[in-house]
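Before relying on records like the one below, remember that each one covers exactly one chain. Contacts with other chains, cofactors or solvent are not represented anywhere in the record.
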Amino acid sequence: MDLHSPLKKFFGFNKFKGLQEQVIKSIVNDQNTFVIMPTGGGKSLCYQLPALMAEGTAIVVSPLIALMKNQVDAIRGISEEHGVAHVLNSSLNKTEVNQVKEDIASGITKLLYVAPESLIKEEYVTFLRTQTISFVAIDEAHCISEWGHDFRPEYRNLKHIIKAIDNVPVICLTATATEKVQEDILKTLGIQDANRFKASFNRANLFYEVRPKTKEVEKDIIRFVKQREGKSGIIYCLSRKKVEEISQILQVNGIKAVPYHAGLDAKTRVRHQDMFLMEDCDVVVATIAFGMGIDKPDVRFVIHHDIPKSLESYYQETGRAGRDDGEGHCLAFYAYKDIEKLEKFMASKPIAEQEIGHALLQEVVGYAETSMNRRKYLLHYFGEEFDAITGDGADMDDNSRNPKKKHEAKEDVIKLLKVVKDTLQQYKSKEVVNTIIGKENALLTSHKTHLQPFFGVGKDKVASYWMALIRQVLVVNFIKKEIEQYGVVKLTEVGINYIENPTSFMMTEDHSYSIENDNSILTKAKLAGGSADEKLVILLKDLRKKVAIKLGVPPFAVFQDPSLDDMALKYPVNLDELSKVHGVGEGKARKFGKDFVKIISDYVDENDILRPDDLIVKSTGVNSGLKLYIIQNTDRKLPLEDISKSKGLEMKELIKEMEAIIFSGTKLNIDYALDDLLDEDQQEEIYEYFMEADTDSIQESLDEFDGDYDEDELRLMRIKFINEVAN
């Protein structure tokens, strides 16, 4: 059978990609078919082409409305008939549903995309039973398996629904599936006889990297994205709150980024997705809801701010990079704390689900902490062997480019396993470590563990070393975490055997044990635990005083103390850098900054300071949208009560936001509001007070006026004062 002419006719391609042709032959011959093809391998064509060729309508079950819309638009683009493809889901009204039914009945519709929830509806099942159905395609089939990374209970019922409609062939497609997931899918659908097609999972153009997640993670991300200016990327976070935070920080630092998560309304989500596809923004910060079936070929990087819950998720999400076979950088930030957080979330789930969740997480820990070639580790997980020396893309990961240091840890592993055994396997990792380093606490004392001869047997090393060793021993299955007794560490057969017959154990060293190992530029300030450079603060305070005397204003009206501390932490040497310092802003930097950056620049040169020049990252401070709203509406002389109400703020919160605006050097005229509150004499009295005061402390002004004015009045007058004398 010639499939090339329909391929050319419908899609304009001259040849098939990978396994596409074999898969399509299987479907055209009415056989159940199971396809595992990595993201970007051309899965959708496998069912679209046979559907367009066959008589009747193919039903495509898909989990996401956005995904269906994308595909329907694409199919409509290659046909004269608008009705060639339709969506049937909760977003349609009665008229639209009738139109869909009409097009199916008249034989126009070749592809009908449905969500599993819609397929349960009796009226749809009854209607479809009377139509000619060519086959049923189940996209994202891993949703069927509870071992899959995106399990959906409503998918489990598909077998019965398909049988109720018609006895037609079924084709399942997924981009990731371990052996276990594959068997589960076939069994659940009752199609163990399916022809199976599995493409290689190796995406040789992707570079895999895992970095330790520190407090500086936002700065690391900004630095990474700025080095790839104008390139498209996706940043994944586990929570909506984090998505909002990171997208704001990126925006404030001049990166075109938009958020995407289920908490945004559908219109906004579609708009942000389209902005990304049309290149009106460079970066999407998203929860995992984003990206399934997003057909953007030139995503250049995928960053995981939080490590995902399974390697399938990780593979699926990183697979969105480099679909055009160009470069794709996959960077994950990893801290074991995040894994513990995910374990805690699981504690409320049924035991069976917890066991699956823990097993999947264990694989993620193994991947993040491994010192072997990451591609080899990943492919092995999907049941594919890879040669780390000659394989395609063999040096495309951080471990191959700069191998981690290792040292012999046989003796330490024995110590660790013996402590687990001698404490009767009743402790979680943290308590095991406390026992090894000899750190007493109430639990250990109650069990009299602190009196045992093995207490403190490893106190020559720090807790983080033993914690890392526990995780590496867990990965090789010497110990396991008990599910029933949340997180308690038990010995396995392999571990018991190791105590009797120990062999070499090469422990991988990471960069996070000590500050000297940190790869980032270390500043004196950072080594001092992130505190300001005291000598520089004194110089800056002297300068501030001189400037204040010259201008005839109090020192705090030039720069407040927190701003000086931040200067002595970040060492800004030009006005642009100074404007990013806490509470400064462009206005203030221009007005007062010249002498300040000169004194800092001289100080840096004289003292040979390693300046963290790429660490000056603007914090979001005031939410930029809110800031703009306040400035615009005070310009329009809108009553402050109205401004605060419309944004759901208390008056105190609004005043705080206005203070942040004026302290950073932006003008804000609230005279109209003060005229309603205080008469001319009262305003003059408070103004004079601030002019003479040594400090702008509100508490001191309250004491001084002894109840004549309340806190809000004084804070508003302070805003007027700073606005006039300092901005």
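The domain at 4-198 is CATH 3.40.50.300 (Rossmann fold).
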